Amino acid sequence: MAGTPYELDALDARLLLLLTDEPRIGVLECSRRLGVARGTVQARLDRLTERGVLGGFPPELDLAALGYGLTAFATMEIAQGQRQQVARALAVIDEVCEVHATTGQGDLFVRMVARSNADLQRVIDEVVAVPGVRRTSTSIALSSPVGPRVRPLLERALPETSGRQK
Fold first, then answer.
1. pTM of the entire structure?
2. 140 sits in which H/E element
3. Which residue, 5, 18, 68, 76, has most beta carbons within 10 Å?
4. Other beta carbons within 10 Å of 105
5. b/e string for 90-99 if b means 16 or more Cβ within 10 A?
6. Residue 1 in contact with residue 52, Cβ under 8 Å?
7. Can you give the C-alpha Rg of the chain in angstroms?
8. Residue 138 β-bridge partners
9. Is 59:106 a contact under the CB 8 Å cutoff?
10. pLDDT tens figures, 91-117
């Protein structure tokens, strides 16, 4: 059933917002803060996981603090019919953080990190050496004024009177 559109209700949204803000919070504390039974929280988490809405609880890492202060994005053109093979090969390169199949100018959009400009050149050399990669165009991120976020989408499911944050 994973991947099927799922309509969030206000309790689901409040639960997901709580987990977004405090990913280490326990089920019992969630139930206390939401004012519902522990079993209700557990059942909601199970259903959200089963439906593919909630995929896990990975920690939010600052890659710059780990020495990967440079983020780059590459638009990649690949040989026709090679998407899966290229994606598998890119997944082997440790510095490749995300790969998205796209429409438009390129076929794949890749987010990668590096320790320096010289290290980025090494990573790009690995990427362009992947069989099936025809051409890449790489841009270095100077800053990230809006990082990954889901809060606005979750807040849509809340009633107007529940204190939405803007």
1. 0.79
2. strand 133-140
3. 76
4. 10
5. beebebbeeb
6. yes
7. 20
8. 74
9. no
10. 999 999 999 999 988 999 999 999 999
